[in-house]
Amino acid sequence: MSRGIPLLGILTICTYGSWYYAFGVLLDPIRTDTGWSESTLTASFSAGTIVIGLTALAGGRLLDRFGQRVVFALGGVLTGLAMLVASSASTVAVFFIGAALGLGASGALGFYHVTMASAVRLNPGDSDRAIAQLTVWGALASAIFLPITAWLADTQGWRATIRILALAVVAAFWIAAAALPDDRPDADARAPGGAPERASRPSVGVVVKRAVASGAPRWLTAAVAFGGIAMSTMLVYQVPVMTAAGLPATTAATMAGVRGLAQLGGRLPLTPLVSRLGADRALLLAFFAMAVGGGLLVVSSRVVIAVAFALIAGFGVGAFSPLQGMRAAQLFDTSDLGATMGFYGAALLLAGSVGPFGAGIVAEATGDRRWVAVIVVASSLSAMWSVRQLMLAPDTV
């Protein structure tokens, strides 16, 4: 096992599982108990992903400057406070703020753009292997948190459930902050007088410009953005859509957990898959699987179809996350990898915020949540087209 991966893996499981994945399970319990509108609740999720998108690059830059200990300690404080506000809200406005900031803090300071960069820094000679191992851990987030969240919401209520989830993610942040080594690239560098010597890094504006200006970085940005729309819409609405198709809520939550576990199918064989196909063709395959999964989701009225959705979509989502990280690591230097990963995290989540919000509007307007699957399929196909353009473009930065 590569250095630091178990602790980074547990943190990744908790940051994704505690709100990003759990929200879809809590949507109906919150709506039923409070009477708050579905579009407002899904808008709070979209607002949270926007917060992550707007702050992910800053979180990555914070990692570059101060190291993971500072980032993870801060993540625990901010996430815990915001989730407690959401769990105690008596009005939808207060819930909206707490939920958006809780998701935003956990994502900006604990999602893959941070943990992948930390894994690469801790394992500079074997970055692809470190990323692959980290995302194997991350694949367990849905499998662990979706069924637990469904059981807790059913037995303890949604407010207590959010507090328990907050406790889990705060503990993961603080344990990682205390136990992991200082990973600052310039931690050991010293100027002649003995003072720490800061590495020269490009500005945030330069990082953004490199990623959108031309060539492969631009098309990787587009592919990540479309993939983010497909993935976020699927994660929020997989349980509601399967329920609307006819599956019992507990069965739907279990199938969503199976989909999370099936992400291992896209991560365990990733190293030989990339060796055989290359990262770009592997990305094409991942997005194709997400498109097929979206099509199966809409007709998942029987368990056998729901299982097929879980396995195929799980493979696609599972392969997508590490592949975009590997491709970014190939295109950019490790000295500012935190900021670069932060940019791609921002692209994924800012674009992804459109999906659940639009899906909520469509669901309320039509009265049928199954139409949501159209967003998943269309976005996945658009991501495939972007990857095709990526394959034809030069790797210029």
Q: How would you describe this structure to a colleague?
A:
- This protein is mainly α and 397 residues long.
- The chain has one domain: Growth Hormone, Chain: A, CATH 1.20.1250.20.
- Helices cover 81% and strands 0% of the residues.
- It has 17 helices and no strands.
- It has helices at 5-34, 38-66, 68-88, 92-110, 112-122, 127-138, 140-156, 158-179, 204-212, 215-245, 249-262, 270-277, 279-297, 303-331, 337-352, 354-366, 372-392.
- Helix 1 runs antiparallel to helix 8 and helix 5 (112-122) crosses helix 6 (127-138).
- The longest helix is centred in the middle third of the chain and has 31 residues, at 215-245.
- The radius of gyration is 20 Å and the shape is globular.
- The relative contact order is 0.17.
Features:
mainly alpha
Give a concise summary.
Helix 2 packs antiparallel against helix 3 and helix 10 (215-245) packs antiparallel against helix 11.
Total count of domains: 1
Taken from the alpha-carbon principal axes, the silhouette is: globular
Determine the CATH superfamily: MFS general substrate transporter like domains
* Residue share in helix: over 70%
CATH class equals: Mainly Alpha
